[in-house]
Write a structure and sequence with these properties.
Blueprint lengths: L5 E5 L2 E4 L4 E5 L15 E6 L9 H10 L10 E5 L5 H20 L12 H21 L7
Antiparallel strand pairs: 1-2, 3-4, 4-5
């Protein structure tokens, strides 16, 4: 039984090509301006809610990080119309999709709490001492009659 062709996203995740939908439409830029207009603009559509390859955690992370890019129905759209070639635009759309998904699935690096260095503590205390001295010198001396 042949394995289903898959699109690699991260080393641990790949999506079946059958989940991706491609549409070719007329481009407003290169390739779409000549008399016999050709459909060189490529739209890649994918629905993370319907994907069988994602875990619930991955699905949640994608929805959170790409919320502004998802349609009301939950579809993600990636468009490429930079070149006159429909084939090259398709490749560009796939590359953008892969990098977009890889960035969305990245786990944020955990921040390690650090203590201030001895030098930074000394500088802070010195600044406080100078500021206090400046304020003390601004005080009005009591008037003597």
């Amino acid at each position: 039984m042949p394995r289903e062709a898959r699109l690699p996203i991260t080393p641990a995740l790949s999506l079946p090509w059958t989940e991706l939908e491609f549409r070719a439409t007329r481009s407003g830029g290169p390739g779409g301006q000549h008399v016999n207009t050709s459909s060189t603009r490529v739209e890649l559509w994918w629905n993370p809610g319907r994907s069988s390859s994602l875990s619930e955690e991955q699905r949640h992370r994608i929805r959170a990080k790409l919320a502004h890019r998802l349609s009301e129905d939950g579809w993600l759209r990636v468009v490429a119309s930079a070149t006159r070639s429909q084939h090259r635009n398709r490749e560009l759309a796939i590359e953008r999709f892969q990098s977009l998904m890889a960035r969305a699935l990245e786990l944020p690096k955990a921040r390690k709490a650090t203590k201030p260095t001895a030098g930074s503590r000394a500088r802070r205390l010195e600044q406080k001492r100078r500021r206090g001295l400046l304020k003390r010198t601004r005080r009005l001396a009591p008037e003597e009659d």
